[in-house]
Every structure is written in structure tokens, then in C-alpha cells.
Write a structure and sequence with these properties.
Blueprint lengths: L2 H5 L1 E2 L2 E2 L1 E9 L2 E10 L24 E6 L5 E7 L6 E5 L7 E5 L4 E9 L6 E6 L12 E7 L19 H4 L8
Antiparallel strand pairs: 1-2, 3-4, 3-9, 5-6, 5-10, 7-8, 10-11
């Protein structure tokens, strides 16, 4: 793999794709893709890692761009996007801020990734998306096709989403 493929840079400069996800509880959907002229964050080290076998002690949340053989091409480690608590102002004079549980988490988050020609799909890998500390090993929680002509890869433990495919497979602005 060349450095041009890793960075998303090319003859016209860096190119990236902004992926926007929405969530309700642990259910995450890819709702938008937009090509942007920006330098994406660098990838985490991919040496010695397999997309399906991260190891028993790897915890956290990250986004991976993968090829059609499910090999990681790019990885970005992030804070878990699904928030089960919120920071609020407190009435307690000794504590100006307090954390309170969120009963039904709902929101959106964006991820900037490089535009890589070989990228077939994006995978979200996470320790369990649930309230409480993140102590369990990470596993793939969702996978979304990046190309309109690609068959949608299987997703783990997700219900049928009906007509959502049209939203995920919208063409990128500006084309390729």
C-alpha cells in the first residue's frame, strides 16, 4: 500500500470523506457520506492486526476502513460516541457539575476518514455500547458498504432496517 492510499492525498491534495452516523441506544446507522477537501487524521498502527481477531484484551471504540477481504486499511480510535450519561450543572454548592444517567441515548456523530480507493466498507468496533465502564473486549458492532456498487456486508446482531440502504448508498458529492 502506498503512502498516497494511507493519507488520502493525491494530485489535487488531501481528500477525505465525512461519515455521519446517528444512534438510538446501541443501534447505529450511517446516514450521510460527503467528500471533503481536508487532511484526514492519521491512521493508528495496523501492523499485526486482523479485522476479525483483535485479541482478548483490546477494549475501546474505533472506526476502520476495510478492503473487500475485511483487512483494515485505516483505523481511527475514538471516545465511544454513544453517551449514557450527561454532564449537567448541579444544585449542590460543593459540586458545580454532576453526571446524570441518560435513559434513552440518542444523537449523531461524524468521523473524518481518508478517501481510499480500495476501501470497501467501514466497520465500527467497540466494547459493549451500554451504560457503565468499558471493561469488555471490543468486537465489530456494525458494518456499512462504502461503494454503491458493493454488496452490503453482513452486520452483526442487527435487525432488518428496511429502506435505509438508499440513504447509505447515496453518491458522494463531486464524484470519484
Amino acid at each position: 500500500m502506498t503512502s498516497e492510499q494511507h493519507t488520502g492525498s493525491g494530485p489535487d491534495g488531501p481528500a477525505a470523506v465525512r461519515l455521519i452516523f446517528e444512534y438510538e441506544g446501541p443501534d447505529i446507522r450511517l446516514v450521510s457520506r460527503q467528500r471533503v477537501d481536508a487532511a484526514p487524521p492519521p491512521s493508528e498502527d495496523l501492523a499485526g492486526t486482523e479485522a476479525t481477531d483483535e485479541g482478548p484484551d483490546v477494549k475501546g471504540f474505533w472506526v476502520e476502513l476495510r478492503d473487500a477481504q475485511r483487512q483494515p486499511l485505516y483505523r481511527r480510535v475514538m471516545h465511544p460516541p454513544v453517551r449514557y450519561d450527561a454532564e449537567v450543572f448541579s444544585d449542590d454548592p460543593d459540586r458545580s457539575l454532576a453526571r446524570v444517567p441518560v435513559e434513552e441515548p440518542k444523537g449523531a456523530f461524524a468521523v473524518l476518514v481518508p478517501e481510499i480507493a480500495e476501501a470497501d466498507h467501514v466497520a465500527l468496533v467497540s466494547s459493549p455500547l451500554a451504560p457503565g465502564p468499558t471493561v469488555a473486549p471490543a468486537a465489530e458492532v456494525a458494518r456499512f458498504a462504502l461503494r454503491p456498487d458493493a454488496a452490503e456486508p453482513d452486520r452483526r446482531d442487527e435487525p432488518d432496517r428496511g429502506d435505509e440502504t438508499d440513504q447509505r448508498d447515496e453518491p458522494d458529492e463531486g464524484g470519484h
